[in-house]
Amino acid sequence: MNECISVFDMLKIGVGPSSSHTLGPWRAAERFLKELHEEGIFGNVMHVKVDLYGSLSLTGKGHATDLAVMLGLSGADPEYVPVEDIEGIIDGINLNNKLKLDNSREIDFNPVVDIVLNRNFLPFHANGLTFTATAGKIEYISTFYSIGGGFVVKEERTVAKEKEIIKCAFPFPTDKADDLLNFTRQENKSISEIVYENEKSIRSEEEIHHELMRVWNTMLECMYIGCHTEGILPGGLKVRRRAFDMHKNLIGELPYTNPWEWLQVIRKTEVKFRQILKWVSCFALSVNEVNASLGRVVTAPTNGSAGVIPAVLMYYMVIENHNAGEKEIKQFLMVAGEIGSIFKKGATISAAMGGCQAEIGVSSAMAAAALCELMGGNPEQCLIAAEIAMEHHLGLTCDPIGGLVQIPCIERNTMGAIKAINAAELALETDPKNVKVPLDKVVNTMWETARDMNNKYKETSEGGLAVAVNISDC
Q: Residue 6: CB partners within 8 Å, gap ≥ 6?
């Protein structure tokens, strides 16, 4: 059996600003609480300490890793906690040096002392964190690794073949793009149809529909919020939100009262090349400005690249096909999720392991393939679209200024979205017989590039723009 990764593993609803540095540690804290309950020691826990290692330590403050572990230990769920409650939870812990463990028992917890930043890297992955609970004479220690996209493991691979993987029995299991292509030929189905059959093997059609639409509605609401919120992003860089002003200049005076009415209004606006570029950029900016403000986003496949897929899908709905609805939304998301899973299985979606090629590059490839199918591309052309998009992100480094998911991260989502659209159009004009570089070769090359890349360009803020530009310069 092959490794089975669901669409809903690749498209997770959570809180910004980072899937690997915020959502992952948050989920790790939840798993640690579960272990304490399973070990039967939760009721006796008097103290908890958290050690952050490697990239989680070097850029943890900027990525709100410290806040994430506190929220996770407090029992808050990143998928459902009201984002307006987050500040109050954190302020309560900081003010009283008390934490309500799993929202049930209060323990002493001083974030300054009990969250320890260790610059050294643990051997299995760049994003390591260790929880230590003291319960009487018992000291319970558990280490987790946040491997990108909100995925958390106890141990992670050093090379692809060594990975401990969860097996299941999809009817059409795929590890590589060639596997997927062979199934589409064998069954005479599109990529989205193959993915749908796989999803039906683990959940009902009603659940698939509901969850895919919940993902899209979260994306749409995120874009809506970002386009209607002005001001300065938190964190010290004093980055001004741009989606608000860009949106104001594009939308005109047409009335609307909610995200779906807003989408309909955008369909009535002027459509010229410059306006299209601005709209796509506006959609992507809006998502990642919400992400930078600890808002609710969909990891796609990560938080740092969360703007690409909604921007491209929104482009299709408001520019290319005004009749597009639930059918096209679900089709797009299923193709995107499948392409993302191929990169996760064959390479990485963690910037701490592979640089920004693993985030923006993968998201651009996901969006390109999904858009290509909606535009009438066959499975071969969809994989060509993904290959083109990733090929032109190879080697992209991750060097966030101040450790914040703001510069250059937010703008990179606009570039990834535009590249995805371009890649889809190129693929639609390509005869698969003439293709020289298959997608699997690009996946392998991305992983090789990731392993060769200097660590200072892998989400450590120790190289590139993060060194050339300081917060004081801003």
A: 198, 199, 202, 337
| Structure tokens given for 113 | 């002392």
**Rounded to an integer, what distance in angstroms lies between the CA atom of residue 43 and that of residue 453?**
46
Q: How many helices (H) and strands (E) does the chain have?
A: 20, 9
Round to whole Å and give the CA distance between 275 and 223: 17
Q: What is the DSSP secondary-structure string of 79-140?
A: TTS-HHHHHHHHHHHHHHTEEEETTTEEEE--HHHHEEEE-SPPSS-SEEEEEEEEETTEEE
Residue 403: predicted pLDDT: 85
Please say whether the beta carbons of 91 and 44 come within 8 A: no
- Integer Cα distance of 234 and 295 in angstroms: 12
Query: Strand pairing partners for 240?
Result: 232
Question: Pairing relation of β-strands 115-118 and 47-54?
Answer: parallel
**What are the CA-CA distances from residue 409 to residues 57, 281, 406 (Å)?**
19, 13, 5
Q: Using CA atoms, how far apart are residues 201 and 433, in angstroms rounded to an integer?
A: 33
Q: How many CA atoms lie within 13 A of 240 on its CB side?
A: 4
pLDDT tens per residue, range 65-92: 999 999 999 999 999 999 999 999 999 9
In one letter, which amino acid is 60? G
Residue 350: name the closest of 460, 439, 442, 462 by CA.
460
Q: Dump pLDDT digits (tens) for 82-137.
A: 999 999 999 999 999 999 999 999 999 999 999 999 989 998 888 999 999 999 89
Burial status of residue 235 (CB atoms within 10 A of its CB: 0-12, 13-18, 19 or more): buried
Residue type, 35: E
Torsion-angle region of 435 (φ positive above 0: left; ψ -120 to 50: alpha; else: beta) = beta
Q: What is the pLDDT of residues 264-313, one digit of tens each?
A: 999 999 889 999 999 999 999 999 999 999 999 999 999 999 999 999 99
pLDDT at 163: 40
Residue 457: per-residue pLDDT: 92
Burial 419-455 (b: 16+ CB within 10 A, else e): bbbbbbbbbbebeeeebeebbbebbebbbebbeebeb
Question: 232: which DSSP letter?
Answer: B
pLDDT band at 471 (very low <50, low <70, confident <90, very high): low
Residues in contact with 19: Cβ distance below 8 Å, sequence separation at least 6, in sequence order: 12, 148, 149, 150, 299, 301, 302, 303, 304
